[in-house]
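agent> fetching stored inputs for the iron/sulfur cluster docking request
agent> found them:
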Amino acid sequence: MSFPIAISSAAAGSRDAVKTTCPYCGVGCGVRASARPDGGHDIAGDELHPANFGRLCVKGSALGETIGLDGRLLHPKMREPAGGALRDVSWDDALDAVAGGFRRIVDEHGPDAVALYVSGQLLTEDYYVANKLMKGYVGSANIDTNSRLCMSSSVAGHKRAFGEDVVPVCYEDLELADLVVLVGSNTAWCHPILFQRIIKIKEARPDMKVVVVDPRYTATCEMADLHLPLSAGTDVRLFNGLLRFLAEHGATDAEFVDAHTNGFAEALAAASAGDSNGAAIGFDLAQCAKACKVDPHDLLEFYRLFARTERVVTVYSQGVNQSSAGTDKVNSIINCHLLTGRIGKPGMGPFSFTGQPNAMGGREVGGLANTLAAHLELDDAKHREIVQQFWGAPAIASRPGLKAVELFEAIEQGRIKAVWIMGTNPVVSLPDSDQAKRALARCELVVCSDIVESTDTNAFAHILLPALGWGEKDGTVTNSERRISRQRAFLPAPGEARADWKIICDVAGRMGYAGFEFASQQEIFDEHARLSAWRNDNNDGVENAGVKDDAVRRAFNLAGLVGLGSEGYAALQPVQWPVRVDNGAAAPGTMRLFDDRRFSHADGKARFIATAPRAPVNAPDDDYPLTLNTGRVRDQWHTMTRTGKSEKLAGHVTEAFVDMHPQDALLCGVREGDLARVSSRWGAMVARVQYGGGMPRGSVFVPIHWNDQVASDARVGAVVNPSVDPLSGEPEFKHTPVRVDKFHVAWHGFSLSRRAPALDSVTYWTRIHGAQFVRYELAGRNPLSEHGDRGAWARALFGVDDAHADWLEYEDRTAGIYRAVHLVDDRIENCVFLSARPELPAREWLASLFAKDKLDEADRIGVLSGQSIGKGADTGPTVCSCFGVGRNTICTAIREQGLKTAAQITACLKAGGNCGSCVPELKKLLVDTELARLSAA
Ligand code: SF4
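agent> prediction call returned; pasting tokens
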């Protein structure tokens, strides 16, 4: 079931709307959900939310299409003995089995024999009790989170530099800056609303500069004044060079450095020294440019721009974090801000954009295996005592637990015998993800809490627990600028689904632990807020009064949110922590930190960190000569369990692809449109070759979203090397040596049908859902002739056994072409197009026929060619998902109406006029169309 949505903000304003928060990226946009009389919901941006002021990107706009119950896990399930089927059980049976299994294994093998693997999708309250259960009651820190995979290098970098995991800046600083540097961040696609905020300011203040540092020419580069396409893994060299440049040109804040920092001399020495391979890279700009493979003039321009611009914000995201040197990359950036004193003031500072909606909330409660709750540390006895005393816990983990990659290694080795996975899909998302499969296959007890029944990970579950999804759950999340927002339920709990916090507390109680008798998520939040203020020397006047000597100062502090009560919690407005208490009353939130120049290290000073450049762990070689980079596409989220339901989002990128430079493709024996096998020493996957993604020579890019539920063999996690940063444990998702080979097939094809086809004789498939149809891209190893008559094969594909079915066919055996269309009462029911070559008719017009009750004469004439005989009917692949505008429509309008700007396209076709995520693609189409016109002239 899916519900059409309205995308104008006015839609929600007319009725009572529930204010909640988008569940996708770390921007944390406010959402208004308004019930319609037909049972659906209109989704719109919350005009009053300070993250987005009413705007939503295309993923947020399509939330209404993702809340249907198809595919949902609605009842607890347990697997029959000996790997049998999953069957429905009562909650009591399921909870007893989880608690009993964990209890027995802890008793027999000790607390470190069990683990939780949780998610940045959880709400803070869920996260809090999960962490409390493991670290304070089970007595093990074997709880890690999928946030390990996206931002743990930033956590480690912040802790080294500031003494605490603190993001010092806010979104408004992006608008106040005169220079925004985006490092390893395709902001246009991954944090679209922040991208729009930057664009808007840049249009208003054209002197504001944007520099993008990224090996790829991404959509974000379309608005950049300067793109530095550095060689993958050379970020530390680039920012060490900047540190040298700033120091040598006197672009420093000596007073700030002397009074408020330590370690500058060591950092400068490291920046000036040779790398671990012995190559001298001291500040010789030409040599630095050569090492980073960027134009020396461009590098000099960037360094000069940074040196002379006071208000600089440097944004970093997964391109920095997901590296075996991720923490050093973060610190090499922060070093430059410390040297210039550009921190703690409006319009300046280092800014980590988080990937997930509540990665930050997880950091606050200690959801990582190496942190404790409330920004306290596991490896500090005093910190452990503070938390244990507050909880009144029977135990406290005494050492850091296993981080994600090593946690799954321990499962495979049998050291961890029970794992409870909550709201995440590690068989898709972990590096070397076939290892995760092996681990779960041999694990004694695998419990999965999820909203979706069928995932690659749930296939290994012994017990499945149905959790509440977005729209049903209630609690808080924290976005990239430390802003806590409420997520509020506007839908009833479906089936027997329960809140994650409730499931965790019920299991804790059954394990015999007191301390989990929470009646509501508000009570959990209150405990979380009280712990943040407990013995916090940054919290004058509240609970810690009189215990200052025994306190630990930390910026994270929710003292002003203690005692909200259910009404205060229900009405809580978005607020940035710290929220302290002043004169006995809650102070307002805090926009930016360190304006007092006081950091969280014991001496109150920030630290420069010496960051010697080092090469990625695994280098390309003759067998695996290319470097694999992974990331997101514009309209999908994570493993597609939610965005994959949206018809609106399905049309932009319909298939897993490997983007590569045409010359590399030539050397690999593939060309655009071919299927290719991308393989590494760890695993392999199959994807469609494409050019045009701005790939430099030697690198390929594959998106992270596709998995075994939507494609035959497209899990890129299986290919990614499991190397991690030694400090943060974050995997190296951006740099795996791979090779690309042609994936040989005898035929290519696609099908569109009202029901899923039978895929027995298909080697390769990938699926998207559309309006009233399901579309499969297909390919086969064995020639169709081996399957006998092609018509019989096609009928079997769709399960059509009526000899008198209205079946239109075309076949050209010489060219290896076969096409068939099946009609029922003049309505299209199924169609399949096959060819010996990958070139096939466009799918969009054929797909549009599924919306018709009856094909007319013109449709019937065109249907076997896959082309409308009517002008303009084939809109082409989707560019603007918000308004469903295709490439052909846009290119035709550009040509025929002489459109010159993206704004003119918007005025003409609406495309780009809602979320703006497609504007970089509109600009590219303007250029491409003009080039085509010139070459035809
Ligand atoms: Fe959601 Fe898009 Fe906002 Fe991210 S930018 S929170 S995906 S609406």
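agent> quick read of the result: The CA atoms of residues 845 and 867 lie 7 Å apart.
agent> awaiting further instructions
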